[in-house]
Design goal:
The chain is α/β, with parallel strands linked by helices. The chain has one domain: Rossmann fold (3-Layer(aba) Sandwich), CATH 3.40.50. About 40% of the residues lie in helices and about 25% in strands. It contains seven helices and eight strands, in the order αββααβαβββαβαβα. A six-stranded mixed sheet has the order 5-4-3-6-7-8, sandwiched between helices. A two-stranded antiparallel ribbon has the order 1-2. Helix 6 links the parallel strand 7 and strand 8.
Length: about 180
């Protein structure tokens, strides 16, 4: 089984839940995707790193860093960083805190992101795109250059247009319909 197909199967098996849920956006849904159940597993780490790195390479965006709001983005960013090093084209990971820490250096963006760094924002599951946009704005405030957004699972109807308005392409690994069809 190819890595993308296996990753899809793992997301369906471990992360897709059916029922009645309230999402972070406040919307109601008959399904929920807890992607961390996949992205934090050993097999999921390997598959996410491989599949996401291939998507990034195919996009031509050439980021120097990959990450997003902690905690959903963290395992994806770390998996990509690991895979990128193995492939000889390192992309460092970063995390963005919900708010700047109140001690030490007071950083909100962690991981050595310098001014001018080309950053790809990642999201595990996207509904409205608001979390990724928050990360984009935090990076810009930090002096970094967001180059695009990657989501493992896109469950949105209009997030791509929100990123287009910011001049950023949206890379999708899966649309939610692909996962629901596998249920």
């Amino acid at each position: 089984m190819d890595p993308r197909t296996r990753l899809k199967a793992l997301l369906v098996e471990r992360s897709l839940q059916l029922g009645d849920f309230t999402l972070a956006s406040g919307a109601r849904s008959h399904y929920y995707i807890d992607a961390r159940r996949t992205t934090m597993s050993a097999e999921g780490q390997m598959l996410v790193g491989l599949v996401a790195f291939e998507a990034i390479e195919a996009s031509g965006l050439t980021p120097t860093h990959v990450g997003g709001l902690t905690m959903g983005a963290d395992p994806i960013a770390y998996a990509v960083a690991h895979r990128s090093f193995l492939e000889g084209r390192p992309i460092d990971a970063f995390s963005i805190r919900k708010k700047a820490k109140e001690h030490g250096t007071g950083q909100r963006v962690e991981g050595g992101v310098e001014a001018g760094a080309r950053c790809l924002v990642v999201e595990d599951s996207m509904t409205t795109g608001s979390s990724a946009l928050e990360a984009v704005h935090a990076l810009r405030d930090h002096g970094a250059l967001p180059v695009g957004v990657l989501t493992l699972v896109d469950r949105s109807t209009d997030a791509a247009s929100r990123f287009e308005a910011e001049g950023l392409p949206l890379l999708r690994i899966f649309r939610v319909q692909e996962l629901l069809a596998g249920r």
